[in-house]
């Protein structure tokens, strides 16, 4: 018999047993779903309290609550462990202390049930801080069992589809998502301390802009017109610069109807921040300080170990700057690369073992080489500067090299983490760059943004940071799906 079917059969049988237990409780007038309990301490707080008191057994009672994850029932006394948001807490239950009838009912509890327990703290002979139960309350009966090996869930499809089970049984996952929350909190604090205002902009937009990506499309029934889920936050945030909000940021969901990979999910989280009277160099300082702050706060250090490697990434000190063209010429070992014809670039790329779409334009071939040959080697923090002008229509031209932009792409751990620009605020030049980008599809122009720009936008620096990629880097995740609680999946 298929092992999966066997597990399902066992789960079904256990559900029937648990349903009968629930029926018996309700018949006796004790419906656990109507109950609640007081939680005076989490597991961590209870342990800290015992360590502060420093006595063999405390007289002060604590009330803890959580899900039963281990259960060792003996004759007159039992040990179990409950799981709460801070971890596990051991409970000692003795028949003579809670009463014979309560102990009889206690032994009918199952793994996965939620209970509240009250009693003093003591330490066992093995040195584990434990609650000596004086009473307990069942507050939720679990009708389904935990995974067979509750201490570990390894099937990736089940992990992503049933994230709640993953969070119950995998400490690594719980820790990673707690760290994700801490990273976002530190980002907000960092920006608030610098007088940035957090705002919200529309997720549904009549014209997509701010990036080159395929959008998700929907129909707005009330307005009887098509809308798109946003692919970037940029254009609405820059409207706020026009309106006099000099420092703004948003942390929000962005949607791109494109491929899935270890580093790409169609729905992901972005930070975008814009600061008037700054530029891309100002954004360098902001971005470096923000990432260092997040790492220091969450990890307690500025050195991050690469997964499956002994190499450490050092976030301290000043980060390297490298010119885009210099990196390309060095990687292809050809100082004349940018003077080659499109066909010669295609041929040379193939000789380097790089698969390049022959339909790509000249600048796209070069960028494909950069992304496949160079970016994976940029492990230590590197600001890649002076990006070719064709790659971004929203940034200012570099005055010393007009075929490049005042832009950087921050690469860490072999992938782009954050791009930043000196924002284009010339409305006429901005319109021209937009028109070149969309070609003949003038209906894709965001004329409302261009109208806003004609009212005047101060010089500004802007920065985007992929939150999921930052979490991958700081927590050592192997896959972007490991950093998103509910990643995009095909219905199953």
Q: Number of helical runs? A: 15
Judged by helices, strands and strand pairing, the structural class is alpha+beta
The main pleated sheet reads as:
8 strands, mixed
* Rg of Cα set: 29 Å
Residue runs with pLDDT of under 50 for 5 or more positions: none
Mean pLDDT equals: 92
Widest β-sheet, arrangement of strands? 7-11-12-19-18-17-16-15
Structure notes:
- The protein has 492 residues and is of the alpha+beta class.
- The chain has 15 helices and 19 strands.
- The strands form four sheets. The protein has an eight-stranded mixed sheet with strand order 7-11-12-19-18-17-16-15, sandwiched between helices. A five-stranded mixed beta barrel has the order 1-2-3-5-4. Strands 8-10-9 form a three-stranded antiparallel sheet, with no helix packed on it.
- The protein is elongated and about 85 Å long.
Could you outline the blueprint of secondary structure elements for this entry?
Layout: H1 3-27, H2 43-53, E1 57-73, E2 77-84, E3 87-94, H3 95-98, H4 100-106, E4 114-123, E5 129-132, E6 135-140, H5 156-161, H6 163-169, H7 171-193, E7 197-198, E8 204-205, E9 217-220, E10 225-229, H8 234-242, E11 247-255, E12 267-276, H9 280-299, E13 303-305, E14 312-314, E15 320-323, H10 324-332, H11 342-351, H12 362-374, E16 382-385, E17 407-412, E18 415-422, H13 427-438, H14 447-454, E19 460-466, H15 467-475
Helix pairs in contact: 7-9, 7-15, 10-12, 11-12, 13-14
Task: Give short descriptive properties of this protein.
alpha+beta, 5-stranded mixed β-barrel, 492 residues, elongated
Summarize the entry for a quick read.
The chain has 15 helices and 19 strands. It is an alpha+beta fold. The radius of gyration is 29 Å and the shape is elongated.
């Amino acid at each position: 018999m298929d092992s999966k079917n066997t597990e399902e059969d066992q789960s079904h049988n256990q559900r029937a047993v648990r349903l009968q237990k629930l029926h018996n409780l309700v018949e006796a007038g004790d419906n656990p779903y109507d109950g609640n309990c007081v939680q005076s301490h989490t597991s961590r707080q209870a342990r800290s309290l015992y360590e502060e008191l420093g006595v063999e057994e405390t007289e002060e009672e604590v009330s803890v609550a959580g899900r039963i994850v281990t259960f060792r029932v003996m004759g007159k006394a039992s040990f179990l462990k409950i799981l709460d948001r801070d971890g596990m807490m051991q409970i000692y239950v003795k028949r003579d202390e809670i009463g014979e009838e309560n102990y009889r009912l206690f032994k009918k509890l199952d793994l996965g049930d939620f209970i509240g327990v009250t009693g003093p703290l003591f330490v066992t002979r093995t040195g584990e801080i434990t609650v000596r139960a004086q009473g307990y309350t069942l507050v939720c009966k679990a009708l389904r069992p935990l995974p067979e090996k509750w201490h570990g869930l390894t099937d990736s499809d089940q992990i992503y589809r049933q994230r709640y089970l993953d969070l119950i049984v995998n400490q690594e996952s719980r820790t990673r998502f707690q760290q994700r929350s801490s990273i976002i909190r530190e980002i907000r604090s960092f920006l608030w301390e610098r007088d940035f205002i957090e705002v919200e902009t529309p997720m549904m937009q009549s014209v997509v802009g701010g990036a080159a990506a395929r959008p998700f499309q929907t129909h707005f029934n009330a307005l009887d017109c098509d809308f798109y889920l946003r692919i970037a936050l940029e254009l609405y945030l820059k409207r706020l610069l026009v309106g006099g909000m000099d420092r703004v940021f948003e942390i929000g969901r962005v949607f791109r109807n494109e491929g899935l990979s270890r580093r790409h999910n169609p729905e992901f989280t972005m930070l975008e921040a814009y600061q008037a009277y700054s530029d891309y160099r100002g954004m360098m300082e902001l971005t470096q300080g923000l990432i260092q702050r997040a790492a220091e706060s969450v990890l307690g250090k500025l050195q991050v170990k690469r997964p499956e490697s002994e190499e450490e990434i050092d976030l301290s000190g000043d980060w390297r700057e490298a010119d885009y063209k210099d990196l390309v010429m060095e990687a292809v070992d050809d100082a004349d690369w940018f003077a080659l014809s499109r066909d010669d670039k295609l041929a040379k790329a193939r000789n380097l073992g790089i698969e390049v779409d022959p339909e790509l334009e000249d600048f796209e071939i070069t960028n494909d080489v950069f992304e496949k040959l160079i970016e994976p080697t940029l492990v230590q923090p590197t600001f890649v500067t002076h990006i070719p002008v064709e790659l971004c229509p929203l940034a200012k031209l570099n005055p010393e090299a007009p075929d490049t932009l005042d832009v950087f792409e921050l690469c860490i751990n072999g992938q782009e983490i954050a791009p930043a620009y000196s924002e284009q605020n010339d409305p006429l030049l901005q319109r021209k760059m937009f028109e070149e980008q969309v070609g003949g599809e003038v209906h894709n122009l965001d004329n409302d943004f261009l109208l806003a720009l004609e009212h005047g936008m101060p010089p500004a620096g802007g920065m985007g940071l992929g939150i999921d990629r930052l979490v991958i880097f700081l927590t050592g995740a192997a896959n972007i799906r490991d950093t998103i609680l509910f990643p995009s999946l095909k219905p199953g």
